[in-house]
Design a protein that fits this description.
homotetramer, Arc Repressor Mutant, subunit A, Tetracycline Repressor, domain 2, 2 domains, DNA-binding
Chain lengths: 208, 208, 208, 208
DNA sequence: AATGAATGAGTGTTCATTCAT
DNA sequence: CATGAATGAACACTCATTCAT
């Protein structure tokens, strides 16, 4: 019986450890080379396992891929949950933006894994997109709409505001190659300038 | 001798026609499946050529890829060149943003091709990034800085403004799958709301 | 991980057996059709393995080729090592010649494999030629020179004597097709006459 | 109608010139890479012709190969014809040996082409081997036998003497790579020592 | 006499996956 | 749990040869 087939049964220490190793290796490899560009061998090697042993934990390449996607997605989602309807909109939104930018800085691989999946049609996470994510987004868009209705924010389409936030923050992870080519600043300094520019534009706009 | 090896010599009608077909097919296929996920067979089939015939025009898979990248890159660059230092900043920037958004709507495949290349390290277009693109970006950042110094724009880091514009507009092409999942609006309506939201935030900011 | 990549680790019974099978098949095929004329499929079939299974043991066609070359080279070298400085020159040399001729008779494929590699520039065994072989040749040329200086041999260039011995004995393996066409004798008889002719000429020369 | 199909009809100047170019290119390429290792493209390029144009002269790769083999074979044969029954055996044989050694020096490619064909079974020149060559060899062996019967040569098997001469002289062309590796002498010096060693051994033998 | 265009049949190599132990 | 061994299906790329002009 394969490890996966055991469902929710308790796992040995080795099982837990190896699964973590596999997830780490898979994130590393998939985010760098994409799904088709990655090989099971690569992941096995990076995880310090033999290929058949790796396939003992996850029977198919796609299973590994889906598992690592799901792992990272929950982290990806979390910051949005903290958007507090009771708080001040400017502070709440800026907190969220800052948090997302920090994630792009500290976990760019997860961002790239996610972006890659999107680019190719997101077939492996459609249920998640149309389920968990959609619910949360609708809830938080409601919050933003409340703020707008209360005159605390300019009247914009809430979901497109979220798209803007995601796009601008994840850009620093996903388009890292371009940024490195165009920005001579060191990484820290670059993220610093990004932060202040984002803050100015999102909150105050370009015009004086 | 392969068709490519002839260098700058004049091309036959058939050559021109087939090369165009190949570029179209390659954009379609590479943008959908990525480099590794695409097969020469697929491209040949879509171009209506036999595989060896395709390789008669471009000797290697990577040659096709680089060719289609270069083809699309020139289109991608052009809108920025039209940013006019003599014009009004608000109008000029908004024109640019609108133009980029329109490109994401009308040519999403090109955007995805480009995004994919970025995600994987941009090894095939580094020379372009550090050459042509960098020069143009530096020039236009100079223009923006002049506007800032003249008090016509808030003091932000020009290159990060460009990053924001690119990120937010290309997002509608690159993350199409996510947008479709989260936005029940029809395509036109969605781009309409995107446009007004972008305009509000970039020019005026969120705060009232 | 491929079998070869394990380096010097101990090998399974199956590994040893299959590697031997591959070496036999490769000698057969490469010596008959040359490197480029041989296909991995041919070798696999002759070894009773599937093509990918063959490539599990030797990752590349050239690896098989180099391996079989190295295998046969050590056998090829050995007779020369037995040239004894203490012995009588005539006897020692004649033993060597006879031994080499016998090798051409019993292992013509090895001879042809080696000749083929030579004809094409010996790029795969240069290190061997300039290393192991050269050392041995220099040592044995020293021995021959001592015999010459002692007046026990006519004054000839020792290394060219070796070339002559190699050329004349290996000729019976390498130019087998020609010999068959020109010599109606049966194989045994032909080698018999070859032996006496070589003996006469090498030791006594043509002139009475 | 192809050029070849015209048989013995007179050829235009261009035809003659191109055929010569092709023969030169084919000798160069085939002798270096072997039959299977050579491509029609390579030969065409070296001959300064387009591939289809080359195939206008020789319809198939094998036709080119056979043609160049036949071309070189006649040159290869010729020295033996000059062995004069009326002359002194020692002088006649030495002339022949010297002549063959000189050919190995000046036309090593032809030698290698021939050797390669031999190694692979000589299927393309069997008719020649069993016809023209065999007749000539039998005739000249008769001459040598006469010399032996007259007591002017040691009693050896004449055809094996020829084999020895061929083997030892052609060795300097065919095993060039090995000779270069083992012999630090410059080319001229090496052939000089070869010549004197051959002379000593063939005529007088090793023993004093 | 010459060439651009096209292709079928390979050919080495990769890789996800399976099997036996 | 783990691994050595094996394989079918694909895939990029090659090459002799043909066709149309």
């Amino acid at each position: 019986m394969s490890a996966r087939a055991q469902g929710s049964k308790k796992r040995t220490r080795i099982q837990v450890q190896n699964e973590q190793r596999i997830m780490d290796a898979a994130l590393e490899v998939f985010s760098t080379y994409g799904y088709r560009g990655s090989t099971v061998d690569q992941i096995a090697q990076r995880a310090g396992l033999s290929k058949p042993n790796l396939l003992y934990y996850y029977a198919k390449k796609q299973d590994i891929y889906v598992a690592v996607l799901e792992h990272t997605l929950s982290d990806w989602l979390q910051p949005l949950t903290k958007l507090d309807p009771e708080g001040e909109p400017a502070e709440q939104l800026w907190n969220y933006i800052e948090c997302k930018l920090e994630l792009s800085r500290s976990a760019p691989k997860a961002s790239r894994l996610f972006a890659n999946e999107m680019l190719h049609g997101a077939h492996n996470i459609e249920p998640y997109l149309r389920g968990e994510l959609k619910s949360l987004v609708e809830e938080k868009c409601g919050v933003i709409q409340v703020w707008i209705d209360a005159g605390k924010l300019k009247p914009i389409a809430p979901v497109h505001l979220l798209f803007m936030i995601w796009a601008t923050t994840q850009h620093y992870a996903d388009f890292d190659a371009q940024i490195k080519a165009l920005c001579q600043d060191k990484r820290e300094e670059c993220f610093g300038k990004a932060s202040t520019t984002l803050k100015t534009i999102f909150l105050d706009g370009l015009l004086p």
